[in-house]
Task: structure prediction
Amino acid sequence: MDTSLDPQLAVTKTPLVANSRSLDWVTEKVSTIVESRTPFWWWVAFLITSPIALFGLCCIAYQISTGVGVWGENHPVGWAWDITNFVFWIGIGHAGTLISAILFLTRQKWRTSINRASEAMTLFAVICAGIFPGIHVGRVWMAWFLAPVPWYEGVWPNFRSPLLWDVFAVSTYFTVSVLFWYTGLVPDLATLRDRATSRVKKFFFTVFALGWRGSNRNWRHYEMAYLILAGISTPLVLSVHSVVSFDFATSVIPGWHTTIFPPYFVAGAIFGGFAMVLTILIPARLLYPQLKDLITPQHIDRMCKIILLTGSIVGYAYAMEFFIAWYGGNPYEQWAFLRNRLADPYLIGPALHITPAPYWWAYWCMITCNVISPQFFWSKKNRYNLWVVFIIVMFVNAGMWFERFVIIVTSLANDFMPSMWHIYHPTWVEVGTFVGTFGIFLSLFLLFMRYLPMIAMSEIKIVLPESDPHYVAPGAHGDEAHNPAHH
Amino acid sequence: MIATEEQPKVYALAAEFPSASALYHAAEQIRDAGFKRWDVFTPYPVHGMDKAMGLGKSWLSAVVLFGGISGLLTAVVLESYPSLIEYQTVVHGKPTDWATVPAFVPIFFELTVLFSAFATVIALMVMSQLPRWNHPMFNWERFSRVGDNGFFLAIEARDPKFSEEKTRSLLESIGGHHVTLIHD
Result:
């Protein structure tokens, strides 16, 4: 839109790229990250994250070779850190798809600065998520039973089971995210191909750029393809966490059997995912100062607002669970919420004459991190203070992990039969595997930052004023820009 | 070696334009001059360029519809045939009849999306005639800025209205710089 025609729009809009940068500035700053020598800090970071990743893989190897008994899980707590970590990581992925798909459909142009990095984050988070259901089946060499192939004595998977829906949802989500991400990368890979100086780089970029040459006859199909991928990713991302929540909601366990789960899980996923986007982008922006004009404080401010919105939705969902537990009149459900989660040993427990819950601290960690901490984002001052933002998003990261732990473990540890109650503690193998997935995630992200353009160049160029075919350069005579043929 | 070295075939006559706006108006004039085999090259999709070039809406979406329908049908067959007909598995004593079809819906949806996504990307490749290893335009050294800030327009030699002199002066008259003959 030509904002120069509408003074009201012109005064309210802060430019999405700061300091009125040009097209070649964008190309230069983003490409040189990939083309220049590996910075010293990168090696330091990578030499920290990759041993952690390796340690996680060793824990997985130990667990597979010995058996699931090396974990602390036992009846009745059959799902614990494994599924907590699965839901945690898959939720993180959702912010990337929200940015790439939903913000695209809603014409939120500020997404172009952050969509590439967030989509990469989605892929790496889903890889980390996929590890856990894979290894928690115990006999991993039989994990292919999840796939609908009747090669083993005609046994088909149960298509009516939410666990199988999950297999389809997560694998579809990963595949579509890879396709979407790669489609977006092609024009930028072509830019890097055209700039490449060494034969090896030229070869690889030529292969992966697929011969892209910015032809408008190709852009026409490309834009339609991009729109469609965004259009189908939008319901997909909403469906993935809904299906994850069905794993719980369709069971009969008090604390799981809740109809509010799908929207509540989706809101929580976006909430936690945006926190992870900021966790990664705030340091990335400091390490590559040239990105500061592309990822501006305005972008961080908008992400904080989304965290505030989704955090408040999550807080509402927590409250609604309690209301329904009371209003529904099911004593088991009331027990699950009051005794297993809420009752602390100091205030609420004694006041209600209830023995405190064994995991009360986990519940209150969750409330503090997820409901209270984002409320600081009501203040604009806090949203523009990177330290405050970084500390709050760290709380949100922790809080979203605790949310899944609270849902899964507190509901299972004390269910219907008191004789079955069992307090769960993780072993070092479970802790090591979880920490290891952070190593995998961060190592993959460091590799991505180093070898691929972390800002979508061809997309961010569209938001520059000069990219508009009806743009009139400041100081230029109007007719000049409109009729270049006349002179 | 044979003495009569063949002259490389002319692919197109190309020109560079200083901005998106200049290229946009040049495209309008090439369209109005009645050329058919020509293209513009830009670092990003220029808004409204399809109209300036006289191109209609991409029909890629029709292919995706086909992909989505085949995904849905695959899911219907994949789930219904074993679960309702051939290998009914009773789990927890729950029914296996037609009333259980709603439980198949999540996978109907997922496979529809999955097949649509593959159809989108494959259709994009086929309709853009990609991937390809090389292209005559890459022989022009100025063209390496197409992914950076270069705006180019090329009229192919196989266009019936193409004439080396007339097309060259047309490109120059509409503001094209560095008008160059591109060889195969």
